[in-house]
Design goal:
With about 450 residues, this protein is an alpha/beta fold. The chain has two domains: about 260 residues, Vaccinia Virus protein VP39 (Rossmann fold); about 120 residues, no CATH class. About 45% of the residues lie in helices and about 15% in strands. It is built from 18 helices and twelve strands. It has an eight-stranded mixed beta sheet, with helices on both faces.
Length: about 450
């Protein structure tokens, strides 16, 4: 039996002691669906690009966060790991904040998607429809030579993409890029959203997987690139028209910055001016060995945010240290003793599983905790007195058979925050996670609610 299974090991006991110091609320029974991205697929604009790592657009309301301070136009909201901008857009469509909304995202394609969604009011649905017809007036080319394609090997692997599909996607990008209209970038987002629909792969955890379902393969092969593009672009037109008919006046301004959520250094202070940061809400990458640079590499290369492998490597090195895809610099943060001990106990167990990833978990876990401590320290400095932070994070299980150990990231982050001067108001369990062979109570997704003491 493992520590996770019998609940009696030193790691489990340490996590129990760490949890006993915190106010815990279990709302997994009623919040599990709200925490996931799936519900966003039914919401206008939120559904413009499928980014399954996002949480639900209504999660902050479901958590009971007091958002009244964000109805003040002298206030500001910050999301340091904004992804495709769920919180930034929700502050408009769901919450009607008058406050300035700032999102920071390191991945250039993901930041692009966030910005396009956030500025939806700038797009004219009638003009967008005209441009769709203009772009698709002539059949997309199927004969563009591979030498012209993006250099990413995925596009050159016929198990993942048929050659004619790559040619047509490249032609669509070329046609749209040549446009001068503001709607050009929205059309480009639609091409990125189409890529997976016409490829023979799926995004699965930490990589792109070749489809193994013959039914799904047949469906993808039967869908033309033109039809897929038209379907997604028409959805954009439908959303814009429906919102223009029923949405009241615009909320406060927004800014989406491509930058590092660990230090929030890029222009944030200048953008804030005299505004006070009333709320910071974010969901960082989880410590689950997923490299989102890899997962969204097709979109990065297709829209030419990345053109060389050296640029991909540089981007990987600037991401939060939640994976071992590259060798990162040594962390320079001194962590709280309880967190260091938890990392030590977890990694001692997991390393006995023997794989290369398990052997590298220690460095990744220390780097992960250090990166979040660095970000929380900066957040504490930005927040107004009595300001709040909401961090949504998932725990994970690592190792094999008798060497399983649960990474209780929610407890680690809460204790790091406390050491930095935050009051931990609540650790709310929003969803129970499952892994075969591991039924540990700490395997869960949580919302950590923090308050800056006045």
């Amino acid at each position: 039996m493992t520590d996770s299974q019998n609940g009696a090991g030193p790691l489990h006991a340490l996590h129990e002691r760490m949890q006993a110091q915190l106010p815990i609320v279990d709302r997994s029974a009623d919040l599990a669906d709200t925490a996931a991205f799936l519900g966003n697929l039914q919401l206008p604009v939120h559904r413009w690009f499928r980014y399954k790592e996002s949480f639900g657009a209504n999660l902050l309301v479901a958590l009971g966060i007091d958002m009244r301070p964000l109805q003040d136009n002298t206030a500001a909201f910050v999301d340091p790991f904004c992804g495709v901008g769920t919180t930034i857009l929700a502050g408009d469509l769901q919450h009607r904040w008058k406050a300035l909304r700032i999102g920071v995202e390191v991945n250039p394609f993901i930041a692009f998607a966030a910005e396009i969604k956030a500025q939806w009011r700038a797009f004219n649905p009638d003009r967008l429809l005209e441009l769709i017809e203009q772009v698709l007036k002539n059949p997309l080319r199927s004969d563009i030579e591979p030498v012209v394609w993006p250099a990413l090997s995925t596009f050159h692997n016929e198990r993942l993409f048929a050659a004619d599909r790559v040619s047509q996607l490249v032609d669509a990008v070329d046609r749209v890029t040549a446009l001068d209209d503001h709607e050009r970038d929205l059309l480009l987002l639609g091409i990125a959203a189409t890529a997976e629909e016409v490829g023979l792969y799926r995004k699965d955890g930490r990589a792109l997987r070749v489809l193994d379902s013959q039914q799904l393969i047949a469906e993808r092969q039967g869908l033309s690139v033109e039809r897929a593009l038209r379907c997604i672009w028409t959805r954009y037109v439908t959303d814009l028209r429906s919102l223009s008919e029923r949405t009241p006046a615009a909320p406060g301004p927004h800014r989406v910055l491509q930058g590092d959520g660990r230090d929030l250094a890029i222009d944030v202070d200048d953008i804030l001016g005299d505004r006070r940061v009333a709320l910071i809400a974010f969901s960082p990458p989880y410590l689950n060995h997923i490299d989102y640079t890899e997962v969204y590499k097709v979109e990065l290369w297709l829209l030419r945010h990345v053109a060389k492998q050296s640029e991909m490597l540089d981007l990987r090195r600037r991401t939060l240290r939640s994976h071992a895809s590259v060798l990162f610099d040594e962390p320079d943060e001194e962590l709280p003793e309880t967190v260091k001990k938890a990392i030590e106990l977890a990694c001692d167990a997991v390393e006995q599983s023997g794989s290369k990833w398990h052997a590298r978990l220690r460095a990744v876990a220390i780097g992960y905790a250090s990166d979040l401590q660095r970000s929380l320290r900066r957040q504490h400095a930005l927040l107004a007195p009595d300001g709040r932070v909401v961090c949504v994070v998932g725990n994970s299980s690592h190792g094999r058979s008798e060497h399983l150990a649960t990474i209780a990231a929610d407890l680690w982050i809460a204790h790091i925050a406390s050491s930095l001067g935050f009051q931990v108001e609540k650790l709310m369990i929003v969803r129970r996670l499952r892994r075969r062979g591991d039924e540990c109570e700490f395997l869960r997704e949580s919302a950590i609610m923090l308050r800056k003491r006045p």
